[in-house]
Amino acid sequence: MKGVVFNYLAEMVEEGFGLEAWDSILQTTGLSGNYIASETYPDEEILMLVDAAHEKTGIDKKELIRSFGRYLLPSFREQNPQFFEAHTDLRSFLLSVDRMIHIEVRKLHPDAALPEFDYDEESESELTMYYTSPRKLCHLAEGLIDASAEHYNTKYTLDHTECMHDGAERCTLHLKFLD
Amino acid sequence: MDADVLNRAYEREKARRKKAEALLEEKSRELYLSYEKLQESHEQLQQTLDEHNRQTEEMTRLVTTYTTVKDDLEIAASLQADLLPDPVDTTTHAAHGYFQPAQFIAGDAYDYFMLSESVFAFYIIDVEGHGAASAMTSFAVHSQLTPKLDGICSRNLHTCNNHADAVIATVNDLNNNFYNPDSKNKYFTMLYGMLDLQAGKLTWCQAGHPALTLYSEGKPIELGCGGFPVGILEEPGFEAAECDIKPGDRVAIYSDGITECYNENKGFFGKDRLIDILLQNRSSEAYQSIATVRDELLAWNAGDEFNDDVTLLLIDYKKPVDQAEWNSVATLSL
Ligand code: HEM
Q1: What was the ipTM of the complex prediction?
Q2: Is residue A9 assigned to a domain?
Q3: HSE toward the beta carbon, residue A96, CA cutoff 13 A
Q4: How many structural domains does chain A have?
Q5: Is residue A157 part of a domain?
Q6: Chain A residues touching residue B12 (CB < 8 angstroms)
Q7: What is the tens place of the pLDDT at every residue in B311-327?
Q8: Is residue A128 domain-shared with residue A45, that is, in the same domain?
Q9: Residue A52 sits in which domain range?
Q10: Ligand 1 pocket, mutate which of A2, A9, A76 (most atoms under 8 A from CB)
Q11: pLDDT tens digits for range A74-91
Q12: What value, to the nearest 5°, has the Cα angle with vertex B135 and ends B227 and B62?
């Protein structure tokens, strides 16, 4: 994971729960907390931090990660508005995540820790995203999707029918777009 | 807020900043090294480019020179072809030649002409090597032997007591003109002869050239006296040979480009094959016999390009000069 992700997490926790909360989370995990945006750090550290944040705030871990996804998306958008401007609807934007956005990210940062998405394009109003990643950050994807839907002003439902956390080989995120 | 919390946050930020600065410094250094490498590559590229440009210029110059030389050689080749005599066919004699240079221009040459009302003179030369340098010598010999009143052929015919002395004198004159131990002059073999159309006598001087073949009464006779090439020795001691020639006889003279024509599978064309083909075609007109030799030779060579210049000269003696007829022709042309 890139340091920038850690820094956004720190930002989110500090904004929501104060500096003390983040400080205590670092104390619990014993991690130094001085992350440099462009450097790469072990994936386990982000999971340790999420665990500690859950302990500290009592918020459900999945919900915490989802929130983090929601928190991350605007920053992504600020830095790469062209990815959003290229699409006028949520469905085609989500299709571009694996086919275009993450491919561009990989070009700039060959060591980026990126998930893999497969798609089932059932219909104009339905889309299934299959998520695979050793980090199992499927709830981060949920948060990112939710914030993206807000950006495109789209109502939708999401069924997380199969999950890697339950032993599935990949997560199935079934999306229905409502108008 | 707990002061410790603030303190730790401050220390974290300080550590982060220090790390970031160190990282920045390291990246700057890397960047600078990359820049230096890039500059080095750029210089190398520039050098390669310069070298390439130089080579291109050199190439253009060479191509231009080559084109000029090639054009010049083509002009020289057509000049050389113009110098060759046309076939001759009179009531008394006939002469035909075959000439094929190895490159554009040749070191081989031949010519024939009337030196007097009854003397038909002929020569064949083969300058060592072939190409431009040999052709220059061949041109020079040609110009010295050109039949003009003050030319060496005419002069020797008129000042010498007999034809034998005259042919020796002519070859000696050439030797004097071309022998120069200090220069890189090319030497050449030659056969210079005179056919006395009235007396039926053939007189010649052979200077290192292949012997002539006389076809008389259905038989080929090789007649030769060897001799040194012209331009090698100061006093080569050239000799003359002489024989009677009867109406109906044919004389064949050739350069070694024919006999030494090489075929990878079959070897040299050889003297015997040439003499034999000419014998088989003895009753044909001279130009027909020559065409046959040419075809056989091209087939042997397996291609149009010869390794050496190729020359063949056939002279037919038909009948003695009719003095009355000659006089009438002479009067007409006056
Ligand atoms: C402009 C939009 C986006 C950009 C620039 C972007 C870029 C990135 C970057 C830089 C990372 C972190 C790489 C690392 O830490 O080494 C990442 C991770 C991730 N991205 Fe995106 N992303 C975008 C949109 C999305 C969206 C819409 C989704 C959800 C469908 C998504 C799903 C994920 C997930 C789940 C991860 C976590 C890593 C993992 O699961 O293995 N991304 N992305």
Answers
A1: 0.73
A2: yes
A3: 17
A4: 2
A5: yes
A6: 26, 32-34
A7: 999 999 999 987 666 55
A8: no
A9: 3-59
A10: A76
A11: 999 999 999 999 999 999
A12: 140
